[in-house]
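Shall we go through a protein fold together, starting from nothing but its sequence? Label the sequence line and the structure token line clearly, so we can match residues to local backbone shapes. Would you write everything just below, so we can both look at the same thing?
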Amino acid sequence: MEWNELKKRIADEYDRRQLKSDVRYRALDNIGDYLKAYHKDVITNVSALMSIDRNELKEAYRNHKPSKKLSGAESSAFNEIYNQLRML
């Protein structure tokens, strides 16, 4: 499965929950941009993410950000990425 397919599954889950804010969708876009820049193999094969510990990936992403802070929406998006991967 490719990143865009996984991203759509996650967006569908967010839609199902009827989230009132689009902040999680933007966080998912930002995480996708990070993955495209630093984990290119994941874009064409998201199952490769299973070999990366979720907390280590969150930490690497956090360190990449200028603010060095992970928002709640970003943390939630990472959690949903791994939740969806477990269901594949």
DSSP finds five helices and no strands in the chain.
